Structures are given as structure tokens and as C-alpha cells.
Amino acid sequence: MSLDLHSDPVDLTAALVDVFSVSGSEAELATLVQEALEKQAPHLEVVRNGDAVLARTNLGRASRVVLAGHLDTVPENGNLPSRREGEFLHGLGTVDMKGGDAVFLHLAATLPEPKHDITFVFYDNEEVEAVKNGLGRIERELPEWLAGDLAIVGEPSNGVIEAGCQGTMRVELRCSGTRAHTARAWMGENAIHALAEPLRRLAEYTPRVVDIDGLTYREGLQATAISGGVAGNVVPDAAVLTVNHRFAPDRDGAAAERHLREVFDGYELSVVDLSPGALPGLSAPAAAELVAAAGGRAAAKLGWTDVARFAALGMPAVNFGPGDPTLAHTKQENVRTAEIGQVAEVLRKFLA
User: Fold this and answer.
1) Distance of alpha carbon 38 from alpha carbon 53, whole angstroms
2) What is the mean pLDDT of the chain?
3) What is each CA distance from 40 to 13, 21, 46, 68, 71, in whole angstroms?
4) How many CB atoms lie within 10 A of CB 282?
5) What mean pLDDT do residues 74-99 have?
6) Helix 9-17 and helix 99-110, axial crossing angle in degrees, nearest 10
7) Can you give the pTM of this predicted structure?
8) Other C-beta atoms within 10 Å of 266: how many?
9) How many CB atoms lie under 10 A from the CB of residue 142?
10) Does residue 130 have a pLDDT over 90?
11) Is residue 1 very low, low, confident or very high in pLDDT (cuts 50, 70, 90)?
């Protein structure tokens, strides 16, 4: 099998979908991508890093744009091979994110003289734990390949530029008590009951709404789990409340933690997970050009994506890809074929 990078991006999407590439099994697809770029895009420098493939122009342009897309998918759910039904292409990865990969690969082969230098990054293991993410390995081993003035991650965004992303923090709030037999409950202190006050604070909490670069980021603070209890006839002496905080990118992780310690003042709090957000950076020249090419429309990214990794490297980053993100990871995953063409057209206008 081989990939035709000059074919219509919709046909190329279908071809990518039909190559099995669940996280950890990207080798075959990475090899096909590498071979296609080496044969059909001779103007690019191409290297392989594990099961990631990187390619770039070296034209001496004044600015460089990084186009990044992951090759892996979540496990199959009866949605392979791909199939077309009218204006929709169905199949595993059509949304997340082989449609975006197809657009990038098509541009790699058909734009030999872009006005910005371009780096293409097709990486592995995005859909699993962060420690395995191919971008982290590339940053350690080939950091110069991730440098640029703007990063575009091809995650599904309904064909709309989604700039930056929120940060996410998970904390555990612990309450302690004293065990006792429930028949003599007054001799104990119920740790689960002690969670009533922090739950009240959560129920009355008003999240911030923050405007950054004309984009609106809505924060969130939600209880996601409660654990505790010893037996059906024992007053529990320990209980844990898990809370997830989604915070706007004008706060770093330290500021978000300080805020939560203020909200839950008086309680034992520990941070168990943190991924900082990314500022949109739409005032940067390359980012402003991209927004103009897309008709002047941009929205805030309310979830967390790998744009945060690029923002941490000091460059503005956006999500821009075909597909409805609410369909990602579902058995019904499908993408409008016209949206794939729209994203390709906008990027061609921006880069050509």
C-alpha cells in the first residue's frame, strides 16, 4: 500500500483511516507517511523519530509555521474500515484526527514554495498517558524541529480556529474523623459528613469568565468523585473529595493552586494532576494572518490539547482541523467531507 499525497484530501483521509494505528501500533502508518513524503515531497527534509515522522522546508523565510497532527487513534469500536455516506466520511479517526493529518500531508506535497517555512510533525501516542506522547520525545531528542513562530495542531475544531486552551488541575481534599460503631455514633466523628462544607462552597462557587485577545474563556470548578467509608456499620474516619478545576490561560498552575487553596481554606488539599493552559497569542503576526485567512473568525479552546506543549516553548498555538470534537472517540465518528476541503483551502490561502 502507498499514500497518494496529491489526491483529494477526502480520499487521503479515507486511506489514512484504513491503516490501523491505535496508540502503540503506529509503525505501519508512520512508515507509509515517511515513504510518501520522501517520494512525493522531495523539497522537504524528512526524518523519522520512533513512530513519528517530521518534515520541513528550509527556504530561509522570515517566519516558520509548525503543523502538528497525531497519527494514533483510540481502540477500534466496530468503525473500520472507512465508508462514505453522502456528504459524510465515517470511520475511526475521521475526526480525531486523520482528517487534519490528510490536510497537512496534502499541503506538504503540493506547496513546494510556501511564504512561511513549514515544519510538519506527525507524531505518535497522543491518545494515551502524557509520558508516552511523541511530542515529549521529540522535544527531548530533536527540539529544533518544534521551533517556530506559530503552531497549528490539527485537532477537530469544526473547521474554526480555536486559540490557546484552558489549563486543568485535579486536587484531592481530605477530611478526617474518628471511627465508631454506628449504634454509638456520638462517640465518633464522621469524615464524610465533614465534606458538607467544601461541597457547599463548590455549590455556591461562581467561575470566572475571562476575555483574552477578544476570546472568552469560561472557567469551571466541579466535584468529580467522593471516596470514603469502612463498613456499613462504622462511622468513617477518612473521606476524600476530588475536584477538577479548568482555568483560563491568564493563570499559570501556581496561581490556579493558590486560588483553590483560598476557596478551600482550612482543609487539607493536594494537587494530583496539572496541565497548564496556553495563551491564544492572536496578536502575533503569523497568528493574525491565519485568522484573516479564515475570515476573521476565532474561538477560545475550552478543553486542553497539545497546543499547550507548543505554548510552553514560547510560541502562539491554535487548534484548527475538520470534524466535530464531540464525535471523537465514539463509534459514530464521522466528518463532513466539505469541512476537510474548507480547512485545506484556508491553510493553503494562509501558507501559499
Assistant:
1) 11
2) 96
3) 17, 22, 11, 19, 19
4) 19
5) 97
6) 130
7) 0.87
8) 8
9) 14
10) no
11) confident
pLDDT at 129 over 90: no
Q: Is residue 233 classed exposed, middle or buried when 0-12, 13-18 and 19+ CB atoms within 10 A define those classes?
A: exposed
For the chain, the three-class secondary structure string (H helix, E strand, C coil) is CCCCCCCCHHHHHHHHHCCCCECCCCHHHHHHHHHHHHHHCCCCEEEEECCEEEEECCCCCCCEEEEEEECCECCCCCCCCCEEECCEEECCCHHHHHHHHHHHHHHHHHCCCCCCEEEEEEECCCCCCHHHCHHHHHHHHCHHHHCCCEEEECCCCCCCCEECECEEEEEEEEEECECEEHHHHHHCECCCHHHHHHHHHHHHCCCCEEEECCEEEECEEEEEEEEECCCCCEECCEEEEEEEEEECCCCCHHHHHHHHHHHCCCCEEEEEEEECCECCCCCCHHHHHHHHHCCCCCEECCCCCCHHHHHCCCCCEEECCCCCHHHCCCCCCEEEHHHHHHHHHHHHHHHC
Q: How confident is the model at residue 69 (pLDDT cuts 50, 70, 90)?
A: very high
The whole-angstrom separation of Cα 26 and Cα 191 is 47
Task: Look at residue 303 in the predicted model and tell me its pLDDT.
Answer: 82
Contact 340, 102 (CB under 8 A): yes
Q: Report pLDDT digits (tens) over 142-176.
A: 999 999 999 999 999 999 999 999 999 999 999 99
Q: Are 168 and 333 in contact (CB under 8 A)?
A: no
Average pLDDT over residues 108-124: 98
Residue 55 cell numbers, joined: 518534515
Active site residues: 72, 126
